[in-house]
Amino acid sequence: MTSKISNVDLYRVFAGILLVVGLIPFFRIPYFVQAIEDGASYNDFIIVVVTLGAFLSMVYVVLTRQRVPAPFGWILLFQFCVLPFSITDGFDAQAVFSYYVPAAYATAYCWLIYLFIRKGDPLWISALNKALWVLTLANFVAIIVYPTGMYHFGATNFESSYRNWVFGYDNRHAEFYIYAVMLSMLWCVRRTGKQISFSVVLLYLICLISTILVKAGTSMVVLIVLGVYMAVQGRKENNRFFTIRGYLILYAILLISLIVVVCGYVDPFGLRTFLLEDVFGKDATFSGRSGIWTSALSWIQSSFLFGNGIESSSVLMAKLGHGSGAHNEILGIWYLGGLVHFLFFLGLVLAAAKKLYQARNTPVAKIISIAIFCILLLELMRGCNELLWLSMYVMGYYCLEINDALTKQQYKKQTKVDRVSLATESDK
User: Fold this and answer.
1) pTM attached to this predicted model
2) DSSP secondary-structure letter at 67?
3) Reading across the β-sheet that carries 151-153, which strands appear in turn?
4) How far is Cα 344 from Cα 348, in angstroms, rounded to an integer?
5) Looking at residue 274, what is its pLDDT?
6) Which of 33, 148, 207, 394, CA to CA, is 20 to 30 A from 172?
7) What are residue 244's phi and psi, to 5 degrees?
8) In which domain, by residue range, is 316 found?
9) Does residue 427 sit within a domain?
């Protein structure tokens, strides 16, 4: 018996290592693809191999006339609706290729997560949790040891180039932190039945201190929001507010208000100056974002339905004043593919939100909901890693299945209908 148990444990350790090796490259950890010689080549090789396997699996599903999972219908529509709008007189094949390669990677990663969820074994959560824990700790140590940056990437002038650590330059760290804390909380549910443990709190504090040390203002605000949730999540009286519906309503209000205030359409009581300079410590243009957003809104207005299509960095720089896009995910989506692109994105969000709200009283739904909200807050100020936020929506859509896998002893005797009924029961 002992030998059998040992063999099983050994198998799971080996499987976990394979999961880390196969999945972590999809995150394209900046240090591994920017600072290590040939790092990008090895990283991309693994991604390409795994992506091909994932797409072959997707093709098999289609050829065998199996039902394509709903989230992937929305993801594929969201990804490919932009292509017809990009085939114009100004068609840029290189820009289209650069857009669709990471889009393919993100879709493949989401498909793999779906397959793991369908299998019902949460080993993938455990493996990713441990890997991101180690990477987050390594990033923290790097910030301590190299306060001016481990390496510089993004400009030819050393002094003006971005400070970079394991997770890249400072305002990109938070998206990895949110994903890491989310996975840690999910695994905590598996181990303890609760959302918070010493390990989760320690990981969160490492993320928060790291953010304070690099002085990333937006990231700091988002992590504080996450910390507030962690502090109050156990109180039943907060269950009605801390739901995906409440988060999306609040996000919509913040998005509209921020654009209106920052772009200077209205400035009641000097609110713009107060928010930007006194609260966030930014200049009156929010580090140049007001000009970028104003330009983006102007181009959105002129191409409202179908957007401007996929463009090169040089074209974006000429039109928006920044080569990486609109510095706001929603504006970026609308600028790229117009109302059509936004509606497909909204369809994906609402499909996941419906499932999350139905299961709102389960710990997994609560965790994924706050993680999505935090990513959305980050997206107010810039675009985010598409792989991270797309996979969150897929996880949100299958939140009940993930909850079952993490708490299978508790739910194994209940039918799916019973579980949904339990999850949607109103708090008294």
Assistant:
1) 0.89
2) P
3) 151-153, 162-165, 168-169
4) 6
5) 58
6) 394
7) -60, -35
8) 2-421
9) no
| Overall domain count for the chain | 1
pLDDT tens-place string over residues 203-230 = 999 999 999 999 888 899 999 999 999 9
As a whole number, the mean pLDDT across the chain is 85
Contact 369, 423 (CB under 8 A): no
Cα distance between residue 11 and residue 208, in whole Å: 35
Calculate Rg over the CA atoms of the chain: 22
Q: What is the distance between the alpha carbons of residues 222 and 227, in angstroms, rounded to a whole number? A: 9
* Structural contact between residues 233 and 196, judged by C-beta atoms closer than 8 angstroms: yes
Q: Residue 159 above 50 pLDDT?
A: no
Burial (CB count within 10 angstroms: exposed 0-12, middle 13-18, buried 19+), residue 241? exposed
Tell me the torsion sign for CA atoms 282, 287, 291, 292: negative
Structure letter (DSSP) for residue 299: H
In a domain, residue 236? The reply is yes
CA distance 175 to 11: 32
Report if residue 77 sits inside a domain.
yes
At 178-211, the pLDDT tens digits run 999 999 999 999 999 999 999 999 999 999 999 9
- 234-251 mean pLDDT: 81
Residue range 104-121: mean pLDDT, rounded: 95
Per-residue confidence (pLDDT) for residue 354, from 0 to 100: 96
Beta bridge partners of 164: 151, 169
List, in order, residues 6 or more apart from 298 with CB less than 8 Å away: none
Phi, psi of 169 (to 5 degrees): -80, 160
Q: Which residue has the tokens 């949790």?
A: 129
Res 425: pLDDT: 52
Q: How far apart are the C-alpha atoms of 41 and 386, rounded to whole Å? A: 21
Q: Does residue 426 form part of some domain? A: no
pLDDT digits (tens, 9 = 90+) for 343-372: 999 999 999 999 999 999 999 999 999 999
Beta bridge partners of 336: none
Dump the DSSP string for 201-231. Answer: HHHHHHHHHHHHHHT-HHHHHHHHHHHHHHH
Q: Which residue, 62, 60, 64, 54, is CA-closest to 114?
A: 54
User: In this structure, what DSSP letter does residue 152 have?
Assistant: E
